[in-house]
Design goal:
Layout: E1 14-16, E2 33-35, E3 56-61, H1 70-80, E4 87-92, H2 98-107, E5 114-118, H3 123-128, E6 132-135, H4 144-151, E7 156-159, H5 165-168, E8 175-178, H6 184-195, H7 198-211, H8 217-238
Helix pairs in contact: 1-2, 1-6
Length: about 240
């Protein structure tokens, strides 16, 4: 595997989106790696995740695909739905697995509890109207939808075994991580904890906004400027 990375020896530096990706590279390249995340714009409005209302919304945003793994989310929601009759699951996004996702909704008897919203232009309105966010991905680069949800003050749930997700979600502060990856049992139990605890959602939602301040465009662009300046200076020194 390391042979396929040999050409990167010529690189001045290698940028990745999350620090945990460093260990996915061979040891001889790790000193070249710099983690720079995507910028996350501050939200124009905030969710109220701790508000008790007649309808509580669990939201997921992402392409309907094998990667995003909405099937596991549907199965986890099905396991707890009867305990939380006021909750519904909204899934925003379109993709190649639409037929499979629709079939699973009907197979699980969730047609009256799940809304497949398709592509949504005003996603911000969905974040603001929801009470909990879940991204059940098997893998991620930088999970933009998760970052956006946190910036809107939504506590979030995802898999602890998914890089990217396990860097943005800080367990007990802005959400919870389900053990493993693609495990329906742990995801159901983790969702259940926050669906049942409005005060925790309220507190974690407030913290979520704070945790996203490190990803503001100004902060991220400053990191890019430093990296590019350092590379240019090294090049000039050796030319």
């Amino acid at each position: 595997r390391s042979q396929s990375f040999q050409w990167l020896r010529l690189a001045d530096c290698i940028t990745v989106q999350c620090e945990s990706y460093r260990n996915l590279y061979p040891p001889f390249l790790r000193h070249k790696i710099i983690a720079i995340p995507n910028p996350v714009f501050p939200a124009q409005g905030q969710a109220a995740p701790g508000v008790e209302s007649a309808t509580q919304v669990l939201l997921s945003v992402g392409r309907l695909s094998f990667q995003k793994n909405q099937i596991a989310l549907l199965q986890a929601f099905a396991r707890v739905a009867s305990q939380f009759p006021q909750w519904r699951l909204d899934i925003a996004g379109e993709g190649e697995h639409r037929a499979e996702v629709e079939a699973e909704v009907f197979k699980l008897g969730l047609a009256d509890r799940v809304r497949l919203l398709g592509a949504v232009k005003d996603v911000s309105s969905l974040y603001r109207a929801s009470h909990l966010f879940c991204l059940s991905s098997r893998w991620e680069g930088f999970p933009n939808a998760l970052a956006e949800a946190l910036a809107h003050g939504l506590p979030a749930v995802g898999y602890g075994g998914c890089c990217g997700i396990n860097e943005l979600i800080e367990p007990g502060r802005n959400g919870l991580l389900a053990a493993g990856n693609d495990d329906v049992d742990t995801l159901a139990e983790t969702l259940k904890q926050l669906m049942a605890d409005a005060p925790a959602r309220r507190e974690m939602g407030a913290t979520a906004v704070e945790t996203m301040r490190a990803y503001t465009p100004a902060a991220v662009f400053d990191r890019w400027e430093r990296v590019l300046t350092e590379v240019a200076q090294r090049r000039m020194a050796t030319s």
